[in-house]
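Could you help me review a protein record that somebody else here produced? What it holds is a sequence and that sequence's fold in C-alpha coordinate form. I have pasted the whole thing underneath without changing anything:
=====
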Amino acid sequence: MDESVYGWWLPPDVSTHGHQIDHLINVLHWFMLALFLGWGAFYAYCIIRFRASKGIKAVYEPIKASASKYLEIGVALFEVFLLVGLSMPVWAELRNPANAPSREEALQIRVTAEQFAWNIHYPGPDGVFGKTDIKMMSRSNPLGADFDDPAGKDDVRTVNQFHMPVGKPVFVELSSKDVIHSFFIPVLRVKQDAVPGQKIPMWFEADETGEFELACAQLCGIAHTRMGGRVYIETQEQFDAWIAEKVREAQEE
Protein backbone atom coordinates (compact mmCIF):
# COMPACT_ATOMS: atom_id res chain seq x y z
CA MET A 1 0.00 0.00 0.00
CA ASP A 2 1.37 3.42 -0.95
CA GLU A 3 1.61 5.34 2.34
CA SER A 4 1.95 8.64 0.47
CA VAL A 5 -1.59 8.10 -0.86
CA TYR A 6 -3.25 6.35 2.06
CA GLY A 7 -1.59 8.14 4.98
CA TRP A 8 -1.16 6.87 8.54
CA TRP A 9 -4.81 7.03 9.64
CA LEU A 10 -7.91 6.42 7.55
CA PRO A 11 -7.47 6.22 3.76
CA PRO A 12 -8.57 9.28 1.79
CA ASP A 13 -12.30 9.44 1.24
CA VAL A 14 -13.37 9.95 -2.38
CA SER A 15 -16.97 8.80 -1.92
CA THR A 16 -20.17 10.74 -1.32
CA HIS A 17 -21.07 8.66 1.74
CA GLY A 18 -17.69 8.02 3.37
CA HIS A 19 -17.84 10.94 5.81
CA GLN A 20 -20.65 9.20 7.70
CA ILE A 21 -18.61 6.03 8.11
CA ASP A 22 -15.49 7.98 9.07
CA HIS A 23 -17.42 9.92 11.71
CA LEU A 24 -18.63 6.66 13.25
CA ILE A 25 -15.12 5.18 13.21
CA ASN A 26 -13.62 8.30 14.81
CA VAL A 27 -16.23 8.45 17.58
CA LEU A 28 -15.74 4.75 18.29
CA HIS A 29 -11.96 5.07 18.52
CA TRP A 30 -12.10 8.11 20.80
CA PHE A 31 -14.51 6.16 23.01
CA MET A 32 -12.13 3.18 23.10
CA LEU A 33 -9.22 5.50 23.93
CA ALA A 34 -11.20 7.01 26.82
CA LEU A 35 -12.00 3.52 28.13
CA PHE A 36 -8.39 2.41 27.78
CA LEU A 37 -7.01 5.42 29.63
CA GLY A 38 -9.76 5.39 32.26
CA TRP A 39 -9.61 1.71 33.12
CA GLY A 40 -5.80 1.75 32.85
CA ALA A 41 -5.58 4.61 35.35
CA PHE A 42 -8.02 2.83 37.69
CA TYR A 43 -5.98 -0.39 37.42
CA ALA A 44 -2.75 1.46 38.26
CA TYR A 45 -4.47 3.17 41.21
CA CYS A 46 -5.68 -0.17 42.59
CA ILE A 47 -2.23 -1.74 42.28
CA ILE A 48 -0.65 1.11 44.23
CA ARG A 49 -3.46 1.80 46.69
CA PHE A 50 -4.10 -1.81 47.68
CA ARG A 51 -0.59 -3.24 47.40
CA ALA A 52 0.54 -5.71 50.05
CA SER A 53 2.10 -4.04 53.10
CA LYS A 54 2.71 -4.76 56.78
CA GLY A 55 -0.12 -4.16 59.19
CA ILE A 56 -2.84 -4.29 56.53
CA LYS A 57 -5.41 -7.06 56.81
CA ALA A 58 -7.14 -8.49 53.78
CA VAL A 59 -10.85 -7.72 53.40
CA TYR A 60 -12.88 -10.57 51.96
CA GLU A 61 -16.28 -8.92 51.74
CA PRO A 62 -17.21 -7.32 48.39
CA ILE A 63 -16.58 -3.59 48.34
CA LYS A 64 -19.66 -1.52 47.62
CA ALA A 65 -18.98 1.46 45.38
CA SER A 66 -21.63 3.53 43.63
CA ALA A 67 -19.22 5.44 41.37
CA SER A 68 -18.09 2.36 39.42
CA LYS A 69 -21.70 1.24 39.06
CA TYR A 70 -22.71 4.56 37.53
CA LEU A 71 -19.66 4.51 35.24
CA GLU A 72 -20.55 1.04 33.99
CA ILE A 73 -24.14 2.12 33.36
CA GLY A 74 -22.86 5.19 31.50
CA VAL A 75 -20.56 3.06 29.33
CA ALA A 76 -23.42 0.70 28.52
CA LEU A 77 -25.73 3.58 27.59
CA PHE A 78 -23.09 5.11 25.32
CA GLU A 79 -22.62 1.76 23.60
CA VAL A 80 -26.36 1.65 22.97
CA PHE A 81 -26.10 5.16 21.51
CA LEU A 82 -23.25 4.03 19.22
CA LEU A 83 -25.39 1.17 17.93
CA VAL A 84 -28.85 2.73 17.79
CA GLY A 85 -28.01 6.41 17.40
CA LEU A 86 -25.07 6.22 14.97
CA SER A 87 -24.50 2.79 13.42
CA MET A 88 -28.05 1.75 12.57
CA PRO A 89 -29.04 5.05 10.87
CA VAL A 90 -25.89 4.97 8.72
CA TRP A 91 -26.48 1.34 7.80
CA ALA A 92 -30.14 1.98 7.01
CA GLU A 93 -29.27 4.93 4.76
CA LEU A 94 -26.46 3.21 2.87
CA ARG A 95 -27.88 -0.31 2.59
CA ASN A 96 -31.65 0.15 2.47
CA PRO A 97 -32.86 -0.91 -1.02
CA ALA A 98 -35.28 2.01 -0.93
CA ASN A 99 -32.28 4.36 -1.05
CA ALA A 100 -30.59 2.59 -3.96
CA PRO A 101 -30.17 4.60 -7.17
CA SER A 102 -32.46 3.65 -10.03
CA ARG A 103 -31.02 1.32 -12.64
CA GLU A 104 -31.65 4.01 -15.27
CA GLU A 105 -29.54 6.70 -13.61
CA ALA A 106 -26.76 4.43 -12.35
CA LEU A 107 -23.92 2.70 -14.17
CA GLN A 108 -24.58 -1.01 -13.81
CA ILE A 109 -21.61 -3.34 -13.36
CA ARG A 110 -21.47 -7.06 -12.67
CA VAL A 111 -18.54 -8.34 -10.62
CA THR A 112 -17.82 -12.06 -10.31
CA ALA A 113 -15.08 -13.12 -7.92
CA GLU A 114 -12.99 -16.24 -8.27
CA GLN A 115 -9.72 -17.56 -6.93
CA PHE A 116 -7.86 -15.25 -7.40
CA ALA A 117 -9.27 -12.50 -9.62
CA TRP A 118 -12.10 -10.01 -10.06
CA ASN A 119 -14.05 -10.51 -13.29
CA ILE A 120 -15.85 -7.30 -14.23
CA HIS A 121 -18.65 -6.99 -16.78
CA TYR A 122 -19.95 -3.72 -18.31
CA PRO A 123 -23.06 -3.53 -20.52
CA GLY A 124 -21.38 -1.45 -23.23
CA PRO A 125 -22.68 1.68 -24.99
CA ASP A 126 -26.20 0.23 -25.48
CA GLY A 127 -26.63 -0.14 -21.71
CA VAL A 128 -27.84 -3.75 -22.05
CA PHE A 129 -26.00 -6.77 -20.71
CA GLY A 130 -25.57 -9.73 -23.00
CA LYS A 131 -26.81 -13.11 -21.81
CA THR A 132 -24.72 -15.13 -19.38
CA ASP A 133 -25.09 -18.74 -18.34
CA ILE A 134 -23.31 -20.55 -15.54
CA LYS A 135 -23.04 -23.60 -17.80
CA MET A 136 -20.83 -21.60 -20.18
CA MET A 137 -18.33 -20.65 -17.50
CA SER A 138 -14.78 -21.80 -18.16
CA ARG A 139 -11.24 -20.65 -17.56
CA SER A 140 -11.35 -18.65 -20.80
CA ASN A 141 -14.93 -17.46 -20.18
CA PRO A 142 -15.12 -16.78 -16.42
CA LEU A 143 -18.32 -14.76 -16.74
CA GLY A 144 -20.20 -17.40 -18.73
CA ALA A 145 -20.91 -14.94 -21.53
CA ASP A 146 -23.01 -16.00 -24.52
CA PHE A 147 -20.92 -14.51 -27.31
CA ASP A 148 -23.65 -15.25 -29.86
CA ASP A 149 -26.12 -12.93 -28.14
CA PRO A 150 -26.42 -9.68 -30.17
CA ALA A 151 -26.97 -7.65 -26.99
CA GLY A 152 -23.55 -8.70 -25.75
CA LYS A 153 -21.55 -7.74 -28.84
CA ASP A 154 -20.60 -4.39 -27.29
CA ASP A 155 -20.19 -5.63 -23.72
CA VAL A 156 -16.88 -4.91 -22.02
CA ARG A 157 -15.19 -7.50 -19.83
CA THR A 158 -12.07 -6.90 -17.76
CA VAL A 159 -10.05 -8.67 -15.09
CA ASN A 160 -8.93 -6.72 -12.02
CA GLN A 161 -9.64 -3.39 -13.70
CA PHE A 162 -12.61 -1.52 -12.25
CA HIS A 163 -13.40 1.67 -14.19
CA MET A 164 -16.12 4.09 -13.12
CA PRO A 165 -17.06 7.73 -13.79
CA VAL A 166 -16.94 10.37 -11.10
CA GLY A 167 -20.19 12.00 -9.98
CA LYS A 168 -22.43 9.15 -11.15
CA PRO A 169 -24.02 6.40 -9.02
CA VAL A 170 -22.61 2.93 -9.60
CA PHE A 171 -24.79 -0.13 -9.03
CA VAL A 172 -22.81 -3.37 -8.64
CA GLU A 173 -24.20 -6.90 -8.70
CA LEU A 174 -21.66 -8.99 -6.81
CA SER A 175 -21.26 -12.78 -6.95
CA SER A 176 -18.64 -15.50 -6.57
CA LYS A 177 -17.77 -18.61 -8.57
CA ASP A 178 -16.09 -20.62 -5.83
CA VAL A 179 -15.57 -19.44 -2.24
CA ILE A 180 -16.43 -16.38 -0.17
CA HIS A 181 -14.47 -13.30 -1.19
CA SER A 182 -14.83 -9.69 -0.05
CA PHE A 183 -14.98 -6.79 -2.50
CA PHE A 184 -13.03 -3.98 -0.82
CA ILE A 185 -12.29 -0.47 -2.11
CA PRO A 186 -10.88 1.46 0.88
CA VAL A 187 -11.15 4.97 -0.60
CA LEU A 188 -14.82 4.42 -1.44
CA ARG A 189 -15.57 2.93 2.00
CA VAL A 190 -16.95 -0.16 0.22
CA LYS A 191 -16.59 -3.68 1.62
CA GLN A 192 -19.02 -6.46 0.78
CA ASP A 193 -18.72 -10.25 0.87
CA ALA A 194 -19.18 -12.09 -2.41
CA VAL A 195 -21.03 -15.32 -1.60
CA PRO A 196 -21.31 -18.30 -3.97
CA GLY A 197 -24.85 -18.78 -5.24
CA GLN A 198 -25.94 -15.25 -4.39
CA LYS A 199 -26.17 -11.99 -6.34
CA ILE A 200 -25.60 -9.21 -3.85
CA PRO A 201 -26.46 -5.60 -4.80
CA MET A 202 -24.36 -2.67 -3.68
CA TRP A 203 -24.13 0.95 -4.75
CA PHE A 204 -21.82 3.92 -4.26
CA GLU A 205 -20.68 7.16 -5.89
CA ALA A 206 -17.28 8.83 -6.16
CA ASP A 207 -16.70 12.57 -5.95
CA GLU A 208 -13.00 12.61 -6.92
CA THR A 209 -10.96 11.08 -9.72
CA GLY A 210 -7.81 8.98 -9.35
CA GLU A 211 -6.33 5.49 -9.38
CA PHE A 212 -6.76 3.41 -6.26
CA GLU A 213 -6.65 -0.10 -4.81
CA LEU A 214 -9.16 -2.93 -5.17
CA ALA A 215 -8.57 -5.77 -2.72
CA CYS A 216 -10.09 -8.95 -1.36
CA ALA A 217 -10.74 -8.57 2.37
CA GLN A 218 -11.62 -12.23 3.01
CA LEU A 219 -9.06 -15.02 3.26
CA CYS A 220 -9.96 -17.03 0.18
CA GLY A 221 -7.08 -19.43 -0.43
CA ILE A 222 -3.35 -19.82 -0.73
CA ALA A 223 -2.97 -16.94 -3.23
CA HIS A 224 -5.31 -14.56 -1.41
CA THR A 225 -2.68 -11.82 -1.23
CA ARG A 226 -2.45 -11.77 -5.03
CA MET A 227 -6.16 -11.07 -5.45
CA GLY A 228 -5.91 -7.37 -6.05
CA GLY A 229 -6.86 -4.94 -8.76
CA ARG A 230 -7.01 -1.27 -9.62
CA VAL A 231 -9.89 1.18 -9.45
CA TYR A 232 -9.90 3.96 -12.03
CA ILE A 233 -12.23 6.85 -11.21
CA GLU A 234 -12.44 9.01 -14.33
CA THR A 235 -14.41 11.85 -15.81
CA GLN A 236 -17.48 10.79 -17.79
CA GLU A 237 -15.63 11.64 -21.02
CA GLN A 238 -12.62 9.52 -20.06
CA PHE A 239 -14.84 6.62 -19.05
CA ASP A 240 -16.84 6.77 -22.29
CA ALA A 241 -13.60 6.86 -24.28
CA TRP A 242 -12.29 3.83 -22.40
CA ILE A 243 -15.51 1.88 -23.08
CA ALA A 244 -15.36 2.81 -26.77
CA GLU A 245 -11.72 1.71 -26.98
CA LYS A 246 -12.43 -1.65 -25.32
CA VAL A 247 -15.38 -2.25 -27.67
CA ARG A 248 -13.20 -1.45 -30.67
CA GLU A 249 -10.45 -3.80 -29.46
CA ALA A 250 -12.98 -6.62 -28.97
CA GLN A 251 -14.44 -6.17 -32.43
CA GLU A 252 -10.97 -6.28 -34.02
CA GLU A 253 -10.12 -9.64 -32.42
Q: What stands out?
A: DSSP finds four helices and ten strands in the chain. The mean pLDDT is 89. The two ends are 35 Å apart (CA to CA). Helices lie at 3-6, 18-49, 66-95, 236-252.
